[in-house]
Amino acid sequence: MPIDALNSACFCLSLDPDALARALDSELGQPGLAQMVRQRCPFLFAARPVFVARSQLQRMAQVMQAVESVVALPAYREQVLAGAPAIARMRAAGPLGVFFGYDFHLSQGRLGLIEINTNAGGAMLNAVLARAQRACCAEVGEMAPTLADVAAFEQGIVDMFRHEWRVSGLAGPNALARPLASIAIVDDAPEGQYLYPEFLLFQQLFERHGLRAVIADPAALEWRDGVLWHGELAIDLVYNRLTDFYLEQASSAALREAYLQHAIVLTPHPQAHALYADKRHLVLFSDAARLQALGVPPATQQVLLEHVPRTEVVAAAAAQRLWDARRGLFFKPVAGFGSRATYRGDKLTKRVWQDILAGDYVAQAIAAPGERRVGGADNEPATKPMKFDLRAYTYDGAVQWVAARLYQGQTTNFRTPGGGFAPLCSALSMHWAGSAQACVCGDEDAAPERADGSGAAERDPMRPLPLGEAKVLECVGCGSTYAPFFPII
Fold it and tell me: Which of 56, 138, 264, 482 is least surrounded by Cβ atoms within 10 Å, i.e. has the fewest?
């Protein structure tokens, strides 16, 4: 059966509730966490997997590499940062920003990049989910992530934070003089956040690897004597889950000062948000003339124009045209997050339309989400379709994990019975073993070739392509392209 057809025909449960509880209460979390999830966010985990073809994952990686290559252009960075707050212009090097999230819609073979986030949540929740799967058949078992995959993912998360510390310069001149010792996971009123259970999972992960970790409201931090403190704990690194992206709120004052004084690592940081997450960038990524003016290579332009839905800034001069075309548009606030204040055009009222015109919004051509049909109780035949989107977690341009989210309604909401994070099943392995990996075409004897054209030096059927920082690989046997997972840090 074609892999895409499984989304309409496979109704087997894959979530093992007992394994999920063990992962939450002992393997990754702490006693009582499973009960907390059941009570506070019962629709966080979907019971059925989403199936995605390997070729679509490869296309997703190509789109992300295209974005990364544009963001790396000096002309793009100069243009974007010129209009950004001063705090976003203060750092040109150092920490890269953890957990970028590229969100895609995939429907009937059409892939659309609908959003980029720089503090994407859910990574540790997907680690839990991957530990709680049971395959309904051998075929599905071969497509699902393994325990080795999830263990590598967890280790990669810790390595990523340590890498942020090393490149910050705070570790000392040789980047090894002082190891990372403490992390604060910071969000407004964290215990009241819907994803608070994930903060606890991160805290446990860090502490298992010898790092002191606290969960804190920014107002609980104190700047004194050149150090950021949480109580009596000096903070080295802040894992930033705030939506106060430029640290403008009064509650962020201590954190802002520590960042301005280069006394901490803040990740992700304001410059990352300015370069990637402002939704006006989707206007540029979907505009051929602007891409050409920046000097973007034609091949990269083509990738972006084919996969970023046409987007424009909502302006009063275009109000009537956009209103008339609203049924094919999705309206998003420029600085929005978590699908808040976003609207499908066919659901708009005149009152909401006036609010959009008065605010800072973009209008994006609707890219249809995928559809996953799910069965009823006791494995009955399919009773309802669910929508799904795909989120790729990335670091330094390389994919760490790809997750699916099932939902009903206008946007992803984690409020739909049967919905939530769903395991992603594909024939593509979810990790990259290194330079000796063979292509799935099976041609282990394909002639190796270096990316710089210097010829064959070792027998390796995968070679890096010159896109971005060459994190995409190409098989010299069949020509297929791949993206390595779990970058070597």
Answer: 138
